[in-house]
Write the structure tokens for this entry.
Amino acid sequence: MEMNEHKTVEKDELTGDKLLSGHEYDNIRELDNNLPKWWVWLFIITIIFAVVYIFVFDVIKVAPYQQEEWKKEMADAGSLAPGQSALIVNANLAALTDKSSLEAGKDIWLKQCKVCHLEGGQGLVGPNLTDNFSIHGCAYTDVVNTIIVGVPEKGMISWKTQLSDDQILKVASYVMTLKGTTPPNPKAPQGEPCK
Ligand code: HEC
């Protein structure tokens, strides 16, 4: 029978590699080599990766697709309503009290804020930040939020594009230290008394 011819594995005379039965063209016979180990492992890893990927993105959906991530970032960057800043929603915010943060905050204050609120925070174009009154809220998170969104209709820009989150937190912390100080010529209180 013809099948019997192929029962024993034939080897190449020179290399000793296995010959593939039935593949012979013009006296050239194909070798039955194993794939290199690194190649096989790469293949297995891609399969494992695909399974994990499908599981994470399509089954338990713990990670957003790039498209959704992009949409969310665009929404965050767009119109920020008060209280909707990613900074406030995501962080459990408390004013920084360490010396280096407050010094960094003061530097920002002198460069960016002094012109309207004056050096001591007694107020000029912007309101007095040393008294116990506030238009946009007394809490640290309110101050952070006001800096992020600004009060454009009254002349204070949104600082979100000018300052990093880190800088905003530091300058807001510095603003908190101005409360209760008594610089000369304070502007009259505006807004609601703080509790
Ligand atoms: C171009 C002038 C200008 C600059 C510069 C400016 N502000 Fe203001 N600031 C204002 C005005 C105007 C208001 C809003 C007053 C109102 O709502 O009637 C304001 C409001 C605030 C408030 C809220 C006060 C309240 O009573 O609730 C804070 C806090 C504040 N600014 C901090 C800062 C900080 C920090 C900086 C620097 C990063 C800064 N401002 C820079 C003009 C300015």
